[in-house]
């Protein structure tokens, strides 16, 4: 079995979201769905992590939401919400981003 190498680097949250949602837009459009992004003011603009793996995870979540939302063909939206978790942050640690992907009617 192969090994997975995690690349530690700085991840720009806005760039990550824009990248993934741009990739998902054609699929959403073809199903009559809109993609929405919202974030809380306490969300860090950058965090340390593996950009490629984060993009893969987010892409998987959003594409699954698009595939499985509204199987009856109704229109709606896929919402990507990013919040910041500050509870339990100690000793100068930064807030951790929390991601929620949901489907809903307009």
Key words describing this protein structure:
106 residues; alpha+beta; three-stranded mixed beta sheet; two-stranded antiparallel sheet; 5 strands
Describe the model.
The chain is of the alpha+beta class and 106 residues long. It has helices at residues 13-30, 51-68, and strands at residues 9-12, 33-39, 46-49, 76-85, 96-104. It has a 3-stranded mixed β-sheet with strand order 2-4-5, with helices on one face. A two-stranded antiparallel ribbon has the order 1-3. Helix 1 (13-30) packs parallel to helix 2 (51-68). The termini are far apart.
Structural class: alpha+beta
Order of helices and strands: EHEEHEE
Q: State the major sheet.
A: 3 strands, mixed
Helix content: 25-40%
- Estimate the mean pLDDT confidence: 79
Strand order of the largest sheet: 2-4-5
Coarse morphology = globular
The count of DSSP E runs of length 2 or more, i.e. the number of strands, is 5
Can you tell me the residue ranges where pLDDT is under 50 for at least 5 consecutive residues?
none
Alpha carbon gyration radius: 15 Å
Distance between the termini: 45 Å
A few lines on this structure:
The chain is α+β, with helices and mostly antiparallel strands. It has helices spanning 13-30, 51-68; strands at 9-12, 33-39, 46-49, 76-85, 96-104. The strands form 2 sheets. It has a 3-stranded mixed sheet with strand order 2-4-5, covered by helices on one side. Strands 1-3 form a two-stranded antiparallel ribbon.
